[in-house]
Amino acid sequence: QVQLVESGGGLVQAGGSLRLSCTVSGSTFGNNAFSWYRQAPGKERVFVAFISSGLSTNYADSVKGRFTIARDNAKNTLFLQMNNLKPEDTAVYYCYAHRGAYWGQGTQVTVSS
């Protein structure tokens, strides 16, 4: 059974930073690609960032230059470093494993103005 467990969300003021983590168990982490998505209240879930097994990355335009996706294969953990947060970044953030199409349960990020 593959499980993805996010952590690191919380309440932060605009301009602040948070680092999200996603720990993956039950699968081969190193050869999988992962993404972060987010879903704001009343809106659809949207793409935030992607990292391949070869460390190629891609970002949504709205977070380029502010967010950084990374992975630690030794710890089976995916990260999302979020800097210069804005109120419009408020959402539930989900990690996603591309091989197998697995989702985590989400972690809430709230940015106050």
Largest sheet: 7 strands, mixed
End-to-end Cα distance: 40 Å
- How do the SSEs run, as a string of H and E? EEEEEEEEEEE
Strand coverage percent? over 45%
Low-pLDDT runs: none
Arithmetic mean of pLDDT: 96
Counting DSSP H or I runs of 4 or more residues, the number of helices is 0
Secondary structural class: mainly beta
- Gross morphology is globular
- Rg over C-alpha atoms, rounded to the nearest angstrom: 13 Å
The oligomeric state of the chains shown is single chain
Overall number of strands: 11
Determine the fraction of residues in helical runs and give it as a percent range. under 10%
What does this protein look like?
This protein has 113 residues and is mainly β. Helices cover 0% and strands 53% of the residues. It has no helices and eleven strands. The protein has strands at residues 3-7, 10-13, 18-25, 34-39, 45-51, 57-59, 67-72, 77-82, 91-97, 102-103, 107-112. Strands 2, 4, 5, 6, 9, 10 and 11 form a seven-stranded mixed beta sheet that branches. Strands 1-3-8-7 form a four-stranded antiparallel beta sheet, with no helix packed on it. The radius of gyration is 13 Å and the shape is globular. The protein starts with a strand and ends with a strand. The model has no long low-confidence stretch (mean pLDDT 96).
Summarize this structure briefly:
By secondary structure, the chain is mostly beta strands.
